[in-house]
Structure prediction request, 468 residues.
Amino acid sequence: MRKSEYVLWALLVLAVIAAGSTMVSLAQSQSAGTGNSEIYRQLDLFGEVLERVRSDYVEKPEDPKLIESAINGMLTALDPHSAYLNPKHFRDMQVQTRGEFGGLGIEVTMENGVVKVVAPIEDTPASHAGLMSGDLITHLDKDQILGLTLQEAVEKMRGPVNSPITLTIVRKNVEEPFDVKVVRDVIHINPVKYNAEGDDVGYIRLTTFNEQTTANLQKAVEDLKKQLGTNLKGYIIDLRNNPGGLLDQAISVSDAFLDQGSIVLTRGRKLEETQRSNSRQGDITDGKQLVVLINGGSASASEIVAGALQDHNRATVVGTRSFGKGSVQTIIPLGSNGALRLTTARYYTPSGRSIQAKGIDPTVVVEEELPEEMKKKADSQNTRGESNLRGHLKGEHENDDADDANDGAADADGAGVSEEGEKEEEESGSSSYVPQDKEKDTQLNYALDLLRGIKSVDTEAKKKAEAN
Prediction:
């Protein structure tokens, strides 16, 4: 009898558990079903609009163009760096990362409906024509850019080698828009340029991060070692106006100067997507002193390198605040349909700093002296960085309801909050002007003085404190 009762109670308990599990499952299914129903309803709406356009628009539209525009509209609503790459754009991107492509030689983004120059690539038609970081391109061959997507504008700037294109430029401190004629060419990207400064300092400029950057950096260091020998005091790593590039190259370049410790932490939407990249034993400079130069045109991969070397006290960072692009874009191939460039993570420096919409603050702030023609309206000049891009991914220090043109909030660890508890405004970006004449290059000459012992960071910090 007791055994029968025990079996009966066991069956009842199992029945209750099963019923509870079924209710939870039904609730979850209902919740998921509700979400899916809303998606399907919106897709029905999209289908209805698409059919209306196809049947009633004044001219017969091209179906592929409609779909591609719809996809790009969805992605550009996320942030300025997500986009759809059709098969041709995808092939162009693959060629570019290998270090050779056709075009003007200019890194651009979209801002307020016009194309903004992030940085011209050195020794390309764009740089020879005098384009500058921060320039706004409003017309291409007199045709207005407003209404085009970034990809469409870039497509118009590409074309056959030796064919000309006229860009209409709006530049800060220049009253009227002006035209610049640029002749397209095959762009060969040499990502590393170097020379000896005097007989004791190695100067290395990284112009971009493509598949050749780390290998060319190693060659540059070896050549400078042989050239300068025992007189070598250290290296200047110039990242000014470097728009970034491949994440793995930023990691390997940082690793080249570090013996141990983390380089960068990337955090995606899900906890399991968090990844940390660590350095390996081996400093190609044998521990020589480093000075890294940055400015408002230093973005993305450049900020990873500057942040890693700064956090590990491996380098003194000199210049002005960087652009503030602290997000990672993943290229997701779509078979024969091209690829999706999607923002999938934020990146953090080894100490846990998020750079998104904030940038890297240099160890020593050194401003370049602007030429007289650029000093006009200097009082009204505003720096432009990631935080000023419409629809940018919010940094952790920004308020959720902050305006796109401002970012005034506090970091999770308290950064950006004054002693009175008031939230301070922070923004990324700064001047990106670099003089052509090295003798007038204040940032470069300051770095040379640091490496030669003429100036020291501690002395300069003391002077600043006394002045305050």
